[in-house]
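User: I'm writing a tutorial on reading structure tokens. Could you give me a worked example: one chain, its sequence, then its tokens, then a sentence or two explaining what the tokens reveal?
Assistant: Sure. Here is the example chain.
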Amino acid sequence: MNANAAVVARTPQEFKSDLKPVWCPGCGDYSVLAAITKAFAKLELLPQNVAVISGIGCSSRIPAYTSCYGFHGVHGRALALGTGVKLARPDLTVLVAGGDGDGYSIGGNHFLHACRRNVDMTYIVMDNRVYGMTKGQASPTTEPDWEFSKLTPEGTGLREFHPLVIALASGANFIARAFSGDPNGTADIIAQAIGTPGFSFVEVLSPCVTFRPEQRHWKDKARPAPVKTTSDPSQAARRILTDDGFNVGVLYVGNRKPYQPSIGRGTKKPADLEAGFVL
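And here are its predicted structure tokens:
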């Protein structure tokens, strides 16, 4: 048989579980899930060679909706879990999924150091600038004058967290923004992120039409970035700082070597370790 004929093309459906998503109608996370499975199929991965890790939140349900290995962790700790999985099993493709609350609030410190460590995994953050699962509180990326939360009816008055700036400054090797309203374009970006060695960060604008119905207009604001991808951090910084948050595409691709310590069989026995604690 011809070797090429023996190759079976992967399909997005192979990466979907039998569980039906329970997101609100119109949630952008449906499209992000579709984009992730399309990216896996495009890269011709196998479900058993992929691990999808998440924390807590609406978007963090994604592992349950895939047929890959999955782990639904605790709030803010998804990147720590993903790092451990990749370092212990470098043969796996590791994708971490979460939201702006999970990733940038309680998980903010892990975000900084995941970028710094540059372990070869992909982090997708579905950003809707609100805590959706807990019914509409302001998140780290919420605008300071957003007045529709019962907890902050006059707005937070706090400057928004700027994840792309933080990712670049902390050492992420791939930085991009996508829009859930374009699942095919998002799939292409995710595939590029997975294919790039090192820590890849993809911010996906994913509207929460339940608690922030005004985000329906994001489809009129999101557009392809007017500039090409750069490998120059200083140029990328200038672009991010002059960006209104709706330019979509791959912003930065670096060439840092991923962190991956050698994995070998231990040579010490428990008794050897215990001897070190004898007084």
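What the tokens reveal: The chain has nine helices and eight strands. Confidence is low (pLDDT under 50) at residues 1-6.
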